[in-house]
């Protein structure tokens, strides 16, 4: 597999998962447009890729507005002559329970993740279609978007929305040979470093030691580098028939997420009035109610850490 001659944009790639994706795409031969709001980390990312023999350029601008999407695509085309791969990774959190979430908390997260994904993909797909490039759109989801999570109304809305958009884009872009997929990562980064459940794994990673097998295997939680192989694979020619999928990866685990399907289908001649529902709903649907929330296996005693 090689990405030689291909050009990629990775949003939010100054640090964390985005940086790991950019480094891996560059290692596989792609020229990369680094993007971040933080100029220093963006410059460091470019320097690191160049020092490793790769090719990169930075665009310091906030993902969300259309102008940034236009600047990202024009930088790729003006600097490297084309655009083949877009990874929409930039993200922020504003976690709090529903009754404490402000309009600003909601709009900020929706603006970067959902609107930022929409504007960047619209710009990239428009360019790829016009230039007959069988491009690769890789958007970043989250277990929260798949199943919900306490304290993350805004983030759940954005990440679930991204999966919905990607399914739609897989349909709309199929004829042009452009694939669109969601990667659902779980990894030790600044975003997860403060979660007490992950503390022992982050501790090991920071010390340069391998993460405990419980995290890598049972939980599917590892380093940012554990996620980047899937990004590069989906970006390659080999993955040309993979589209419209939500694929989870973390630590030693790879998962294909199902798309929603009806689990119970029932008919009532003349339709479902209140009386028919009262009579039949409990037996038909009541016991089949679906679970919500991420599934966290119990943390073994030796991996328990006190809350800071
Ligand atoms: N870490 C995980 O386990 C995990 C799990 C599920 C999903 N994700 C998703 O992966 C992505 C990366 O997360 P991470 O853990 O590396 O986070 P991170 O906070 O370490 O990195 C996010 C990067 O995005 C940049 N950024 C923020 N707002 C931006 C904007 N408007 N425009 C451009 N750049 C911006 C930040 O400066 C930072 O460099 C996010 O979309 C996140 O929701 C992460």
Description:
The protein is of the alpha/beta class. The radius of gyration is 21 Å and the shape is globular. It has an eight-stranded mixed sheet with strand order 3-2-1-4-5-6-7-8, sandwiched between helices. The longest helix is centred in the middle third of the chain and has 28 residues, at 103-130. The protein has ten helices and eight strands. The model has no long low-confidence stretch (mean pLDDT 96). The relative contact order is 0.12. The protein has a domain at 7-187 and 223-256: Rossmann fold (3-Layer(aba) Sandwich). Residues 11-12, 14-18, 35-38, 41, 62-64, 89-92, 112, 140, 142, 185-187, 189-192 line the site of nicotinamide-adenine-dinucleotide. The site of nicotinamide-adenine-dinucleotide (NAD) has 29 residues, from α1 and β2.
Give me the side-by-side strand order of the main sheet. 3-2-1-4-5-6-7-8
CATH top level of the domain at 7-187 and 223-256? Alpha Beta
CATH level 4 superfamily of the domain at 7-187 and 223-256: NAD(P)-binding Rossmann-like Domain
Name the helix and strand elements from N-terminus to C-terminus, one letter apiece.
Answer: EHEHEHEHEHHEHHHEEH
Architecture of the domain at 7-187 and 223-256, CATH level 2? Answer: 3-Layer(aba) Sandwich
Average pLDDT over all residues: 96
Low-confidence stretches: none
Quick one: biggest sheet? 8 strands, mixed
Q: Could you estimate the helical fraction of the residues in percent?
A: 40-55%
Say what the CATH topology of the domain at 7-187 and 223-256 is. Rossmann fold
- How many alpha or pi helices? 10
Overall structural class, as computed from helix and strand content, comes to alpha/beta
List the bound ligands. nicotinamide-adenine-dinucleotide
Rg, nearest Å: 21 Å
**Overall geometry:** globular
As a percent range, the share of strand residues is 5-15%
Compute the number of strand runs: 8
First-last Cα distance: 44 Å
Keywords: Oxidoreductase
Protein name: SDR family oxidoreductase
GO molecular function: oxidoreductase activity
Family: Belongs to the short-chain dehydrogenases/reductases (SDR) family.
């Amino acid at each position: 597999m090689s990405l030689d001659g291909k050009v990629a944009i990775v949003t939010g790639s100054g640090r964390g998962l985005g940086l790991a994706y950019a480094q891996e795409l560059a290692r596989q031969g792609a020229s990369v447009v680094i993007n971040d709001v933080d100029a220093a980390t963006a410059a460091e990312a470019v320097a690191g890729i160049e020092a490793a023999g790769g090719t990169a350029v930075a665009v310091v601008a906030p993902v969300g507005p259309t102008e940034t999407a236009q600047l990202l695509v024009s930088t790729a085309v003006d600097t490297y002559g084309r655009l083949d791969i877009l990874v929409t990774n930039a993200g922020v959190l504003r976690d709090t329970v529903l009754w404490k979430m402000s309009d600003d908390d909601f709009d900020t997260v929706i603006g970067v993740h959902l609107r930022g994904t929409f504007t960047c993909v619209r710009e990239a797909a428009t360019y790829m279609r016009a230039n007959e490039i069988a491009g690769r759109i890789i958007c970043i989801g989250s277990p929260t978007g798949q199943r919900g999570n306490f304290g993350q109304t805004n983030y759940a809305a954005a990440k679930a929305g991204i999966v919905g958009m990607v399914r739609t884009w897989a349909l709309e872009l199929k004829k042009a040979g452009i694939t669109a997929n969601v990667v659902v990562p779980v990894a030790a980064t600044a975003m997860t470093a403060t979660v007490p459940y992950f503390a022992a794994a982050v501790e090991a990673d920071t010390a340069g030691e391998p993460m405990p097998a419980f995290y890598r295997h049972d939980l599917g939680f590892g380093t940012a580098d554990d996620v980047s192989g899937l990004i590069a694979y989906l970006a390659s020619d080999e993955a040309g028939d993979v589209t419209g999928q939500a694929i989870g990866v973390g630590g030693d685990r790879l998962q294909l997420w199902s798309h929603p399907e009806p689990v119970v289908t029932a008919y009532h001649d003349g339709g479902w009035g209140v009386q028919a529902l009262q009579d039949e709903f409990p037996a038909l649907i009541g016991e089949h109610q679906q679970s919500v929330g991420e599934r966290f296996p119990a943390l073994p005693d030796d991996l328990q850490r006190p809350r800071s």
